[in-house]
Specification:
The complex is a heterodimer of chains A (184) and B (335). By secondary structure, chain A is an alpha/beta fold. Chain A has a single domain, classed as Rossmann fold, CATH 3.40.50. In chain A, helix 1 packs across helix 2. Chain A is globular, with a radius of gyration of 17 Å. Chain B has two domains: 145 residues, 3-Layer(aba) Sandwich (Rossmann fold); 160 residues, Aspartate/ornithine carbamoyltransferase (Rossmann fold, 3-Layer(aba) Sandwich), CATH 3.40.50. The longest helix of chain B is centred in the last third of the chain and has 20 residues. In chain B, the strands form two sheets. Chain B has a five-stranded parallel beta sheet with strand order 7-6-5-8-9. A four-stranded parallel beta sheet of chain B has the order 2-1-3-4, sandwiched between helices. Helix content of chain B is 34%, strand content 13%. Classes of the chains: A alpha/beta (184), B alpha/beta (335). At the A-B interface, strand 4, helix 3 and strand 7 of A face helix 1 of B.
Chain lengths: 184, 335
């Protein structure tokens, strides 16, 4: 038996992204040199939405791309082999830009470490920031997010699932846990 | 899957996965920094009992771009010329800690023996065995065709495409692997060769057979999307299989006139090395629709994908516990 609990609904996800968009602009003092890079799969969807918000607010397009860090991970040998998603940098590249990495869930921090390595092979941004929809804690590396949609205290036995309209047909963040462990 | 011994080892989903991963590998090879840290600490041995330029260099480049250590071993100038057996060579490589063995051997089935005799724990990749198979060549050919013939290539197969494979099918490991893989990917294959250069049992292969190149090119059974010329392997011919070079060239060679018969989108392929003037004329080999040089480039990306899929993941290990939330795992991919 799996117990499910919805922690963010569509409207809350929308409001969180709007707030993050304003935070990013405030921190960067405008949209100059901003590049959003989503981490596949759902980070790319979120980066696209965030890019749309920024464009609406600032009235000019903010470039959005994707960054796959699979080949830079340190846990490749511990798991079944993963497929590789595309890395697509916007025209103009990332040199001397302010790159905002976008992901759905920040957990151990290992994905972000891999993404930072991948980024340094692609160019030299002036600064790199991190925006996530959910920070669920349990960091294993000294990494923190600059912009967080929601801090979500979880236990290690729980799973955080982010569903997005474009990928999963619905907008929702939920926590799943095996019922047996909850009652134990 | 632990090894890549035959194009038939791959089902459709696995073959498409290799091509998709190769697509991403190819993208990394257009960057300024081409090296990836993915296989750091792994050792790939190139075990070549037969001469080869492009396949060995291609595997070497692929392994190095993924940061694996590469040990090149060629039979010439090694203990093999002193009479060392395949088994003893394999045990030596195992003692050195090879994670993957890329093997080319003049005897059909040698890679299979290496993989299943328990001499080595490493993954075995067949880089051409006798007249049997050459699966990575078939994968790079399919990759090249997909790039040219299919829009929105990612995730797609070659369903409905028509491919002619022309020439010395009898001695060609490339032809066998191509027929098997193209069939898996949904393409229709026509083998075109003189009856003397077709292997016994070809009627059991999942393809059509023709003896007449001009009729096939003229689209007797529908337009062709790709024409793949095979090298006439004179070094393997211990009898005369055709009356004269000139006659072979006239009946089965691809020249400018025959290229002119093809539809505009059709690509001309050759696995190399070419016998210019025999199975393919210089006009045809250097024409804008020829993908011969591109095939070599694609070979590195495809071999990177194969090494990645065989070596990057955990070996013989069931996924332990729920995966991290950060990246969705794709299960059921190669190993």
């Amino acid at each position: 038996m799996t117990a499910r609990r919805t922690v963010l609904e569509a409207a809350e996800i929308r409001r969180a992204l709007t707030r993050i968009a304003h935070e990013v602009l405030e921190r960067n003092k405008g949209a100059d040199d901003l590049v959003l890079l989503g981490i596949p799969t759902r980070g790319v969807t979120l980066a696209t939405r965030l890019g749309r918000r920024l464009t609406e607010i600032e009235g000019r397009p903010v470039p959005v791309g994707s960054l796959d860090a699979t080949m830079y991970r340190d846990d490749l040998r511990r798991q079944p082999v993963r497929t590789i998603a595309p890395t697509e940098l916007p025209d103009g590249g990332i040199d001397d830009k302010v790159v905002v990495l976008v992901d759905d869930v920040l957990f151990s921090g290992r994905t972000i470490r891999a993404a930072l390595d991948a980024l340094s092979d692609l160019g030299r941004p002036r600064a790199v920031r991190l925006a996530v929809l959910v920070d669920r804690g349990h960091r294993e590396l000294p990494i923190r997010a600059d912009h967080v949609g929601k801090n979500l205290p979880t236990s290690l036995s729980e799973r955080v699932r982010v569903a997005l309209e474009e990928v999963d047909g619905t907008d929702e963040v939920r926590i799943e846990s095996d019922a047996a462990e909850v009652s134990a | 899957m632990r090894h890549l011994l035959s194009a038939a080892d791959l089902d459709r989903a696995q073959a498409v996965t290799v091509l998709d991963v190769a697509e991403q590998m190819a993208a990394t090879q257009r960057r300024e920094i081409k090296k990836l840290p993915t296989l750091r600490g792994r050792t790939v041995v190139n075990l070549f009992f037969e001469d080869s330029t492009r396949t060995r260099i291609s595997f070497e480049a692929a392994a190095k771009r993924l940061s694996a250590d590469v040990i090149n071993f060629s039979a010439k100038g090694s203990s093999v010329s002193k009479g060392e057996s395949l088994k003893d060579t394999a045990l030596t490589l195992e003692a050195m800690g090879a994670d993957a063995v890329v093997v080319r051997h003049p005897a059909s089935g040698a890679p299979h023996r290496l993989a299943h005799a328990g001499w080595t724990r490493g993954a075995v990749v067949n880089a051409g065995d006798g007249t049997h198979e050459h699966p990575t060549q078939a994968l790079l050919d399919a990759f090249t065709m997909r790039r040219h013939l299919v829009e929105n290539a990612t995730g797609a197969d070659l369903a409905g495409r028509r491919v002619a494979v022309v020439g010395d099918v009898l001695h060609s490991r490339v032809a066998r692997s191509n027929v098997l893989l193209l069939n898996t990917l949904g393409a229709h294959v026509v083998l075109v060769a003189p009856p003397t250069l077709l292997p016994v049992g070809v009627e059991g292969w999942p393809c059509e057979v023709s003896y007449d190149l001009d009729a096939t090119l003229a689209g007797a059974h529908g337009d062709l999307d790709a024409v793949m010329m095979l090298r006439v392997q004179a070094e393997r011919m211990n009898a005369s299989y055709f009356p004269s070079v000139r006659e072979y060239s006239r009946r089965y060679g691809l020249d400018a006139r025959r290229v002119g018969l093809l539809p505009d989108h059709t690509v001309v392929m050759h696995p190399g090395p070419m016998n210019r003037g025999l199975e393919i004329s210089a006009d045809a080999a250097d024409s804008p629709r020829s993908t011969i040089v591109e095939q070599v480039t694609n070979g590195v990306a495809v071999r990177m994908a194969v090494l990645y899929l065989l070596l990057a993941g955990a070996r013989d290990l069931a996924p332990a516990g729920p995966p991290a939330d950060e990246v969705a795992l794709t299960e059921g991919v190669l190993p």
